[in-house]
Design brief:
The protein is an alpha+beta fold and 198 residues long. It contains three helices and twelve strands. The strands form four sheets. The protein has a four-stranded antiparallel beta sheet with strand order 3-4-9-8, with no helix packed on it. Strand 1, helix 2 and strand 2 form a beta-alpha-beta unit. The longest helix has 15 residues. The chain is globular and about 50 Å long.
Length: 198
């Protein structure tokens, strides 16, 4: 994705050409335990490419797809999210382009704290006291365990699990068609991510 954006900008002689990236939606098998997912790896590449480029933004679609249909039936939501991203990176409006993104991941007091930025007002979870879909993982493939996530203020989540002291990374909303329930007050979803614990 990064190479594609660089190439197009060079060919068009437009070094600040904006890009809007539609992240892959939920599609495929739903899982009851943490799994490895090539689909999630592509989403992570899209997220990292957008985050590293000041002229790119990501439209998260993990919550508007259909596990049995590749193309999201809810085109209006995708269009609204792309329009919001365009307002930020194309038109320069001072707005959050896509929704909550992880700003820091640290270990503290027997738990892992994930602080988010790009939030309108505060974090919210739909359908429970805290969001679901967080995993704490070691370095090895297959080492991920679901974590209990609870709010620790308006921008931070506290994750606990039996591997909280040894985990080296956090994953959220990982899998082909995961269930994701973390949003901000404006209804913008936190997109899937994997981050190292610092």
């Amino acid at each position: 994705m990064t190479a594609l954006m660089t190439d197009w900008r060079q060919r068009l002689n437009a070094p600040t050409l904006p890009f809007l990236i539609v992240q892959l939606p939920n599609f495929g098998m739903r899982n009851t335990a943490p799994v490895e997912s090539g689909w999630s790896g592509v989403r992570e590449g899209q997220r990292r490419a957008a985050n590293a480029d000041p002229h790119a933004a990501l439209a998260v679609t993990i919550d508007v797809g259909d596990a049995a249909e590749l193309h999201p039936p809810n085109k209006q939501a995708v269009g609204r999210r792309l329009a919001r991203a365009a307002r930020a990176v194309v038109y320069g409006e001072d707005i959050v382009p896509s929704g909550p993104i992880p700003a820091s991941v640290i270990r503290a007091q027997g738990a892992v704290l994930v602080r988010f930025t790009d939030i309108e007002e505060r974090l919210v979870a739909y359908g429970g006291d805290g969001p679901i879909g967080f995993e704490l993982c070691g370095d090895a493939v297959g080492s991920c365990r679901f974590a209990l996530a609870r709010f620790d203020g308006e921008q931070t989540l506290r994750l606990t699990a039996d591997n909280a002291q040894t985990a080296t990374r956090v994953r959220y909303c990982w899998g082909d068609a995961p269930t994701c329930t973390l949003y901000d007050s404006a209804g913008a979803p936190a997109g899937p991510f994997e981050e190292a614990i610092r």
